[in-house]
Amino acid sequence: MDLDGIRAEALAAIEAAGDDEALQALRVKYLGRKSDLSAALRELGNLDAKARAEAGARANRVKKAIEEALEARGAALLSQRAGALATREWLDLSLPAEAPRKGHLHPITLVEADLEHLFRGMGYRVVEGPWVEDEFHNFDALNIPASHPSRDDWDTFWLSDGNLLRTHTSPVQIRAMRRFGAPLRAIFPGRVFRNEAVDATHEACFTQIEGLVIDRDIVPGHLFHSIRAILSAILGEEVEARFRPSFFPFTEPSFECDIRRGGRWMELCGMGMVHPKVLEAGGIDPLEWTGFAFGMGIDRLTLMRYGIDDIRWFHGADLRFLEQFGCA
Ligand code: DAH
Question: Whose CA is nearest to atom 2 of ligand 1?
Fold first, then answer.
């Protein structure tokens, strides 16, 4: 076949090719070793020099034209495919994304953080103790006798190794006295555990904050003043508080503090002057040092601060309740 014929046939076939596979077959057919063009090039050897140069140049132009046609058709097929894909699958980048949900602190954590801040301002250090306690720190060192009801199986979560989940934060008093000595001003916030049936005002796990001040010549007036100041700051108003005589094995004398909310007196915390035996258990000389201690439930304080009616809201998973405490 003559070169013009080859060229015309090849370009028409390439233009009609429907996919890459067809194009590849045409490349072999028109440019491959067995193609008419290759045969024509091989025959150039038989021509004389002048004719060979001329025919060679023509054959190369045909070859180049076929290569260019293959390339152009390939690019056209590719953009056809991309166009089809773009109408089938597309991404709307202007669609507003769902904003990530931002977390916030739990109401009990908020009150705990405020308490820590207030006490630090009054010179207290913040100390945490272990949740798993031994009998010595939780009871004996606090002058709680073996016959005391809180040591009963029904009131305390005992572990199989003889230890227990602490029933109050008071054992940290002993740990702090032994570690830091006197004088001392510290609070001990944290979780405590009791074998309770859960109802609107009782949880088996709740949060307490314990306070301890050891110094010379401490009197109950120091205690009453500190408690009033803290409660007023936490509840955001001057609170009406009363202090009643009470009993705790680890304080002598002991008091209970009630505050007036909406015309009713509510019991809020226990306190007293640290018992000499407790000072001794903490390695502090009761003839030289005096002190006061108190323990309050942060959960109950949180209920009062926000006017919440049921302690079970705190550990329920109802986000509608919890989301009220996020800052906007
Ligand atoms: N530990 C007591 C309780 O959990 C609370 C308490 C009362 C702590 C009097 C004190 C205190 O430090 O002096 O019920």
Answer: 295
Tell me which residue range forms the domain holding 62: 3-88
Does residue 328 sit within a domain? no
| H/E run at residue 59 | helix 49-88
Q: Closest Cα to atom 8, ligand 1: which residue?
A: 295
Q: How much distance in Å is there from the Cα of 263 to the middle of ligand 1?
A: 26
Report CA(326)–ligand 1 centroid distance (Å).
Answer: 31
Atom of ligand 1 nearest to the CA of 169: 1
Least confident stretch, 2-6, 28-32, 62-66, 107-111: 2-6
141-155, 191-205, 248-262, 313-327 — most confident range: 248-262
Using a 6 Å cutoff on CB, does residue 251 contact ligand 1? yes
Residues β-bridged to residue 189: 209
Per residue in 10-46, pLDDT (tens digit) is 999 999 999 999 999 999 999 999 988 888 888 888 8
Give the Cα separation of 29 and 23 in Å (integer): 10
Mean pLDDT computed over every residue of the chain: 92
Assign residue 212 the CATH number of its domain. 3.30.930.10
Tell me the average pLDDT across 286-307.
Answer: 95
Same domain, 150 and 221: yes
> Is 119 a member of any domain?
yes
User: Is the backbone of residue 140 left (phi > 0), alpha (psi -120 to 50) or beta?
Assistant: alpha
Does some domain include residue 261?
yes
Of 88, 123, 151, the position where a domain reaches its end is 88
Choosing from 148, 168, 187, 203 the residue with most ligand 1 atoms within 8 A of its CB, the one to mutate for a pocket test is 168
Q: What are phi and psi of 256, to 5 degrees?
A: -125, 140
What pTM value is reported for the model? 0.71
